[in-house]
Amino acid sequence: MTTTAEQVTSGAASGLATRSLAGSQTPALLAKFPHRNVASAWPETEYSYEQILGRLQKPPFRLEKKTSQQARMQGARWIMKWLSTFPGENWQQRWQACPGAADPKGWTAHIREWGRSVGGLPTHSAMTAGLLGLVCADVIRPDLAWLASRNSRYLRLAIEATRDPEGFARLRASVPADLYESHDGSRALSVLAQLMVTYGGGIRDIRVGDLLALRADSSRHRSRPIQLVYGWLRNMGQFPPDAPGTLFHLQSRALQSTPAQLVDRYHLQCQPVRDLIVDYLTERQAGLDWNSLERLSTVLGKNFWADLECHHPGISSIDLPPDVRTEYKARMATKVVRRRQPDGTLIEFTEPRASAPAVLQIIRSFYLDLAQWALDEPERWGRWAVPCPISTTDTNVTKLERQQKSRADQRTRERLPYLPVLVSTAERRLKEARERLDAVRAAPLGSTFTVLGETYVKARLTSRPDGQTETAYEVGGKRKLLGSKEKRAFWAWVTIEILRHTGIRIEELQELSHHSIIRYTLPTTGEIVPLLQIAPSKTDQERLLLISPELADVLSAVVSRVRGPDGTVPLVRRYDDHERVWSPPMPLLCQWSVSGETRAIAKNTIVRGLDKVIEDSGLRGKDGKPLRYQPHDFRRIFITDAILNGLPPHIAQVIAGHENIGTTMGYNAIYPGVAIEAHRAFIARRRAMRPPEEYRAVTSEEWDEFLGHFERRKLALGECGRAYGTDCAHEHACVRCPVLIVGPNERPRLVEIRQNLADRIAEAEREGWLGEAEGLSVSLAAAEEKISQLDGRQDRRSSQVFLGVPSFDQITSRTSTAPKPAGD
């Protein structure tokens, strides 16, 4: 089915507010998962007046209470007679033409006014009951905006009983009873009923796009029940696998864009260059992750070409003149910073741009790639092979890397000693939050209770089926959600404990699942060792970590908390902020239930919980400001602490999941004194392992013998390349020896030897000395080979060979000064 932009954003029939589709993900999702169009005709709305009245007299539309059934029939008759006065081929078209379809609050007034003109006055209750009967019988379908503006307390019960009782029964069986019967659950069921009324069909017919469109219209519909419905139907397997994992924070979660969409964000004026950048990104897309591709598009589209178009209007070639190159690199070297002073004034100043070398490196790679591709596909890329405006000097990041390493090491050294304080603060916050939660659960509704020296008043009302609430009020009247506070304190404690015991990245923490906890049986002793399997995040290498007893307690607490009533960990889907894709359903450990919807814990939630622990700890740095911890600080602290306590760096590399040991040592904030002592201990260990005679003093005879070896290597034809302590293996047949090192100055002597050998071979053949001639021929061949090697080496040094294609140094750093042919 082809969905046009008009179909996606029309919303006229369904009451959508298209202005709310400004989120980056909603339009793309609606294009991928379109909502159903509201039909204008279907069998039930084509029934005659008598057929509809007869249908309302039969189950399941007939009410058990006689007076209620009479009111329904009376109201249905008045409504259909009134609708008959409007144009249309069926009842739905007549409903859309009447003024009541646009007036959900006063639609009965229009019927009463018409009733007076024909000699009757129907009651409001009869008309409401009649309309509900017509809606349940699928005679008319008011739009979502009309239904959302009215009280839907009876609509859900009527739709459940008449339209799709089997679907509602199946839904009730898959949703926890306390959630299904809660206030949020009731509102979610009302959303289901409204969708069934507007679009027709049952629960199985509801699509992803129906809920996306309803979620986008935030002006008329609350988002929480819509998210709850989406989660229910998704868990029932009703939606396709590539549907979003949740509608929560839908506007802040973007989908992957095409290279053309990425480049068009910057509205480039030069179409050929715009097309070139799009083609370049398309060519590189297969070998890059999404985050790198987006970064590449930002540098080339915004930082490079959009900047050039801004400062040099009309520019149309990537072959930049020298003055344009110089000005561009000067702009990239600095940036303008605006800061507001305490008195409210705004000042501007420039400072060095730390990311300038990285930006210039991407641009340089762009030019070099085009030059290389021009050799392989000249018809496609040849016209773009121009001198590169960025030199290797411009992209030198050695100094910046040293500065970054120094800052990171100082940050680690400053935070490592305070880690025990942070851990104890997290444990204390969790313990206090649990005491408050236990106290509010034990207190009666509306009662006053005291815990940890704090006085609270428990809420008097609750919407939960069990009659309980975790909401309390302080003496000043401020509301406290003690259950939510305990939940956030628990996950903050879990975050700190797992990060400090494993050194994993925060993305890897979010990807931990119940399947990550595995057991390994030692083949020697049969002992079972618990291991934690880390899924690849930044690299593509999985790794296994040994679970310590402390970490095992934390993981056990997490699993016990997230398990469902049936003992299994619920399957949830996680949104990858870097790749902008949804993972398949997995039993993730970092999950919780919010408003009845089970979803993965977002990265921002983890960071905010960590910040709250740091705030409560009162830690301050040397500058007197609060000491902030980032999740990655725990990774650096873990590696530094492990190496300081004797863990070999190559083992730390495997645990950390680094591709090379240099990265691991970059994370290790080695203290100068520790480095010196470790080096001295290393030398002492090596000496203890080596034979003691290797460290005795060298005698004068041994030293003279060592020097004499190199003196004896000097020969008439050059130098002998044999190793120290070895004798000549060729009985001094130096011309034949492959380890003879002949210098260019010895060529005349080799020519003389070659001539002498030729004369001796001629004499041996003349005298019949065939054995002598054969041996001399071997020496002659060796002499000629060495002469040819010398000549070839000299020719290569003194001559140049042009292969017909320019070299990279010619392409990237030299500008041709030859005059252009006439007519160019």
Give your account of this protein's structure.
This protein is α+β, with helices and mostly antiparallel strands and 824 residues long. The protein folds into five domains: 1-39 and 141-252, no CATH class; 40-140, no CATH class; 259-396, no CATH class; 420-641, hpI Integrase, Chain A, CATH 1.10.443; 714-798. The strands form six sheets. It has a four-stranded antiparallel β-sheet. Strands 7-8-9 form a three-stranded antiparallel β-sheet, with no helix packed on it. Helix 13 (208-216) runs antiparallel to helix 14 and helix 28 (649-656) crosses helix 29.
List the helices and strands and how they pair.
Blueprint lengths: L4 H5 L16 H7 L16 H8 L9 H18 L7 H7 L9 H12 L5 H13 L7 H5 L4 H10 L2 H10 L2 H4 L2 H17 L8 H9 L6 H13 L23 H5 L7 H15 L4 H22 L10 H12 E7 L5 E7 L3 H21 L1 H4 L16 H18 L3 H24 L5 E4 L2 E5 L12 E4 L4 E3 H21 L3 H6 L5 E5 L6 E7 L8 E4 L2 H14 L12 E2 L4 E2 L8 E4 L2 E4 L2 H15 L13 H14 L4 H8 L4 H7 L4 H18 L10 H13 L1 E2 L2 E3 L19 E3 L4 H21 L2 H29 L9 H6 L11
Antiparallel strand pairs: 1-2, 3-4, 4-5, 5-6, 7-8, 8-9, 10-11, 12-13, 14-15, 15-16
Helix pairs in contact: 2-13, 4-7, 9-12, 12-14, 13-14, 16-17, 17-19, 21-27, 22-23, 22-26, 23-25, 23-26, 23-27, 28-29, 32-33
